[in-house]
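User: Predict the complex.
Assistant: Input components as received:
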Amino acid sequence: MIKISQNVEQWECDYKDCRATCCRRSNPLTIFDVKTIAQRRGLDWSEFADFDDDKVRLFLKTGNNGCIFLDDDCKCSIYGFKPLVCRLLPFEISGVVQADEPILHLKPIDECPGYGSGPKLDEDFMWQVERDATLYLHENQKLCREFRDEDRDIEALLG
Ligand code: SF4
Ligand code: SF4
């Protein structure tokens, strides 16, 4: 289940204004994201992702300027196959509740300057956000289940 804390009426990504604020942090990845990026860019997963085995979470690697796929013009160099979490904008994940029916909580990004301009976020837009959020939630569960229950190492899961 996807829960969104607050609706956004209108939004346009103004990455030049904010210098791509939401790409300056280490964003979470799913196995689906890692395999897609590895295949499309011909990279080994360890070149662009880190794995935290205590939290059982994959993250995008960051450098001094944030995400390693952010270019000098503040554009995403893997835009066509960017990770699921990057497709949820202008929302970000504020929590995941693991239960029989897991819940992914989303909220609008606080520091985003893009609200109030650009197109209205219509039903189609929100349907895509919910679809990508649902896939993220399922992938997140799959990573936890396969890593913990089957006692596999991350290399085996991503290889
Ligand atoms: S979504 Fe908002 S915070 Fe992120 S790059 Fe676009 S304008 Fe900046
Ligand atoms: S993958 Fe692209 S959209 Fe996602 S954080 Fe990196 S630069 Fe930003």
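The first strand starts at residue 2 and ends at 4.
Let me know if you want any component modeled separately.
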